[in-house]
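Posting for a labmate who doesn't have an account.
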Amino acid sequence: MVEAVLIDLFSLPANLQNNIQGLLHNTLETIEKCSSIHAPCVYVMCCQRQGSERKGEQEFLFPHLRSFHSLKRRLEVVCAQTTAAALYTIKQRLDEKDLSIIKIILPTLRKDLMKAYIDHLFTAVYQFEFEDLQLVSDCEDLQICEPQHEGQTLPSQDVAFIRSEIQMYLESLPSLKGELTILRSSLIPDDTFLHGFTTRTGGISYIPTLSSCNLFSSSKRRDPQVVVKENLRRLANAAGFNPEAFHRVKVDHANAVCIMGKTEPDNYDGIVTNQKGVTLAAPGADCIPVLFADPVRRACGAAHSGWKGTLLGVSMATVNAMVSEYGCNVKDILVVLGPSVGPCCYKLPQESAKEFHRIDPKCVRLFDSASPYVDIRRATRILLERGGILPENIQDDSITDQNQNVTFCTACHPDKFYSHFRDGTNFGTQIGFISIKD
């Protein structure tokens, strides 16, 4: 069943206001008639001319809206100067109400353009269907129907314009939850490497569990790639790296490692390079973002280490790649574990906890319970030390000076970090990043 209806009046010129009123009246009448029990939210999208007040733009519509009593509380007019701004505002309204099934009623000529905007601003979480504005007549129109046949492909210049319009609008949005904050380790020399771990502040993501500097998009989350790209642009500006030379691991929760400059695997949780100016990154939202730096051979790496990757030895696999590819001495490699879920909060089923108990009994607390507490950080340190990394070359939550700590518990600090464990499926993601300075 349709949860929301979007009526697109954006492109109709001002001299057709009478037609707009009539079309809107007929459309709302049909929606109200067909939705007397389960009224959908209705959004009317129209253009706000430059220099005009928002109130003035809507005045001619209000008389036709007041008469629709059953829709009144679920009816909103959204005026903006661009389609990107109007549609993004409506997306915010949909997300506030957790709505995902949307019917768009619009002029036929706008359909392909609207689909292009939707492809950029929405993810696969949402379902859309389209209806021509002049064809509103039957109650059946408000049911989920087969998608319309695709129109002709938009000219490349139109797609480029849409991307540019969206980008300019997103760049204009204020940062949320304060300034962008980057945590840095004193272990990694800043004369050779640029590095850091992000927190959740200073981006534009507005959904509570993603707010505000979410740095990962997927088909299961409501943050589209364009929003993540804007968050990354702001991070790059603050940190001083080139977002066009940014490479993030392709998470598989395993131990494959990508060597920059060689054939890229389909999936990998570690990545290494000796190229200057190339930024490597690993995500973490409970899993550990691990950074590696060799100031002698001037090489670096990043790894994503969840509980599965930890058991599979992804951190030592990354170290071994640096040794074999760049001639690094394992005793020169510095390793920093970033924000991740701590042993205070993280539980695993007994069968999985047993694997950590085998590494070291101190990695598991309340071992006899159904879901023991597990310390994936301690397990990572132990495996690194067994592989030859010097204990003093590893920074984690065991650091003596807590003012230098960057290995905070993500689940314990909802104001600073995202956490899958705490927030559920639609969670945000922070990253650890590192590059070799020019």
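Reply:
Got it, the structure tokens are right above this. Confidence is low (pLDDT under 50) at residues 135-150.
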